[in-house]
Structures are given as C-alpha cells and as structure tokens.
Amino acid sequence: MGLKNYNLYSAQNYVDDILSVNVSSLSKAITLIESTSEKHQKIAQEIIQLCLPHSGNSIRIGITGVPGVGKSTFIEAFGKFLTASKLRVAVLSIDPSSKIGKGSILGDKTRMPDLSTDPNAFIRPTPSGDSLGGVSSKTRETILICEAARFDVIIIETVGVGQNEIAVHAMVDFFLLLSLAGAGDELQGIKKGIIEMADAFVINKDDGDNKIRVQIAKADLERALHLFPEKDTDFYPKVFTCSAINNKGIKEIWDEIKLFETNSKSSGTWDKKRAAQNEVWFTESIKNNLLLLLQNNKAIQLAFNSYKTKIQSNLISPIIAANELIEQFLQQLKKQ
Ligand code: GDP
Fold first, then answer.
1. Domain ranges of the chain
2. Coil, helix or strand for 200?
3. Does 179 sit in the ligand 1 pocket, CB within 6 Å?
4. Angstrom distance (rounded) from CA 196 to CA 206
5. How far is the CA of 277 from the CAs of 152, 267, 269, 282, in angstroms?
6. Is the backbone of residue 150 left (phi > 0), alpha (psi -120 to 50) or beta?
7. Spacing, Cα 181 to ligand 1 middle (Å)
8. If 0-12 CB within 10 Å is exposed, 13-18 middle and 19+ buried, where does residue 330 land?
9. Domain topology for 55-266
C-alpha cells in the first residue's frame, strides 16, 4: 500500500480517523508502523502515543498450530461467531514466510473469504521478515491502534514453528493451541515449551471418520497435561474439540475465554500479566534499539567484523569481545 499521498496527514489526523473507526486510515497507520523509513517511524510513534489512552480494552488471543491444522478455517468460524455476537474482530497474522512488501501467504484473503468481507472484521498480515524482535514490537504497536479503533477481540495468528510462539505468547491474554488427532502420540510435533504456554488446547477436525480418533486424542492429551507442572495462575488449561468446517465447538471455546477473562480480572492476574508484558516489551526495545545503534555505527561495525573472525578462531572469548566492543562505543560517545 502506497503512502505517498498521505504525507500531508498528521498523526492527529490518523488518530481522529482511527478513533472514528476508519479502517482505511487504520491500515495506513499500520503500514507506517511497519515501515523502516525514519520519517514514517516518527509519525507512527506519535500515532501510537496518541492512541495509548484509547487502547487496552480488547481481549488479545494468540492462536497457533502447525500448517494444515485448520487455523484459517477455525479463525474464520470463530471470527464469524464473534461478529454475529456484535463483536468487532481484528486478525493479525504473523507470517514467517513473507518479507515486508513482498506479499504474504497468510494474508491472502482467500484464506478467510467470509471474514475478510465482514464489515466488523479486519484481517492484516504481519510479514515477519528477518527480524523477530522487530516484528513482535510492530505487532504489539498494531494491537494498540486496533484497540483504539474499537476492536473487541484481537487474534494474533502464527504458524506453529520456531520462536514466533514465544513472541506471541508475550503479547496476548489467552494463548490457544490448535492440534490434530495424530497417529498415536498427540504431543508429536508440538514442542513442550508451547504446551506449557497454552491456556487452552483445541483438537480440530472433530467430524466424520475422525471423531473417534479425536476423542482418543483428547483423553491422551488430558492425561499428558497432568504430567506438566501447574501454572502459577489459578486457571487450568482444558482440552476442547471442534470442527471448524462445521462450526462445531466454537461457542464452548469462546465461553472458556470469557471465563478466563472474568476469573483473571477478578483475581488481578489479567492486569498483572499485561503490566509484565509491557515491561518485557520495554526491555526488549532497549536491547533492540541499542543493537541497532551499534549496527548503524560504521567504526563499530568494522570492529564487530574483526572480533567475529577472532571469535570464530577461538582467539578471544565472545564475552570479552562484547565488553571491548561496548567499551569502544562508549569511548566514541564520550568524544562526541
Ligand atoms: P492452516 O494451514 O492451519 O491455516 O489450515 P487451513 O485452515 O488452511 O486448513 C487445512 C485443511 O484442513 C483445509 O483443507 C481445510 O478445509 C481442512 N479443515 C480445516 N478445518 C477442518 C475441520 O474442522 N474438519 C475437516 N474435516 N477439515 C478441516
């Protein structure tokens, strides 16, 4: 999406539009957030700051699962269920296979044809590109401005591979793992760390010939979950089954999320978790920005490359090299 014609638009103009639920301006503001241009970043940061007092009122749900598990089918069914209940839904898909400006598989509107034409839904891919830290920050910023645009439920979708789940878990209220009734071992292919993060498990494709296998998988998964240490919250993750294609089991999952919300708001864990997530975001941003400062500094880049060669040949320990590099940077700052 081009931004050329929007140079005359001020941050306040964007925010006025966003607050009056203008989805086209919301989209453009997200493009500014994702842009690497300094000028765009400046206005994006202003937009976020102005949206901040109007943010925070949604339920943020993370959904993950391996490709083929039925994420887009599920999100379409779940999203339609929510919009039919008069809720506004934003879906942000993190797509590790795409780069900024290069299109996106997950963002393809054909994945969620009904939801993408629903006036109460907004679907937006987040190309994850190369930098995970950058993406998680941009997705968090996007969540805030979607909330200012009065979306009640924000779904962050990610493919169940790699580190994306950890990043998504750190920005949502409820984390849902979609899985399938597999051949025997239900935890096959699902990393232990992801299981520990989940607030609910959903076994999809509970239909046709698959029904019995799904029931067995559910019992297996429930048994396996007892082996995991209890979380430090008072909420025990449950196993649900659904048939996304037949809209079966969707309401039960939403009821569970609402129950989680009610319980954790009354116990205070809801706010505590969000506050802790903000703190993580803050420290992550410091780390990322410092790294960027170092990367953008020519002399330091040269030194970095020279240290890299020495480290690879075990001539210097990585920790000493890092300390020396930072010292060099600090000396350079002092001289300025
Ligand atoms: P994603 O890669 O996780 O987004 O998965 P998709 O939503 O694209 O689904 C992968 C395949 O599984 C598609 O052919 C869907 O039609 C099918 N599928 C999704 N949900 C169900 C379901 O509940 N039952 C059955 N039988 N098939 C499903």
1. 1-53, 55-266, 281-335
2. strand
3. no
4. 24
5. 19, 17, 12, 9
6. left
7. 13
8. exposed
9. Rossmann fold (3.40.50)
From the number of C-beta atoms within 10 Å of its C-beta (0-12, 13-18, 19+), residue 193 rates as exposed
Q: Which has the closest alpha carbon to 87: 201, 244, 254? A: 254
| Total Cβ atoms within 10 A of residue 304 | 16
Question: If DSSP codes are grouped into helix, strand and coil, which group holds residue 260?
Answer: helix
- The Cα–Cα gap between 18 and 39 comes to 20
Ligand 1: does its nearest atom lie under 6 Å from the Cβ of 207? yes
Asked if residue 105 has its Cβ within 6 Å of ligand 1, the reply is no
Region of poorest pLDDT, from 5-9, 12-16, 152-156, 272-276 = 5-9
Residue nearest to atom 27 of ligand 1 (CA): 205
Phi, psi torsion values for 235, nearest 5 degrees: -110, 120
70 CB within 6 A, ligand 1: yes
Please write the tens of the pLDDT for every residue from 135-146. Answer: 678 899 999 999
To test the pocket of ligand 1, the residue of 161, 206, 245, 247 to mutate (highest count of ligand atoms within 8 Å of its CB) is: 245
CB of 107 closer than 6 angstroms to any ligand 1 atom:
no
Give tens-digit pLDDT for 200-259. 999 999 999 999 999 998 998 888 888 776 666 667 899 999 999 999 999 999 999 999
Give distance in angstroms: CA of 70 to centre of ligand 1.
4
As separate numbers, helices (DSSP H) first and strands (DSSP E) second, the chain gives 13, 7
Q: What is the CATH number of domain 1-53?
A: 1.20.5
Note whether 294 and 304 are within 8 A (CB). yes
Residue 315 dihedral angles phi and psi, to the nearest 5°? -85, -20
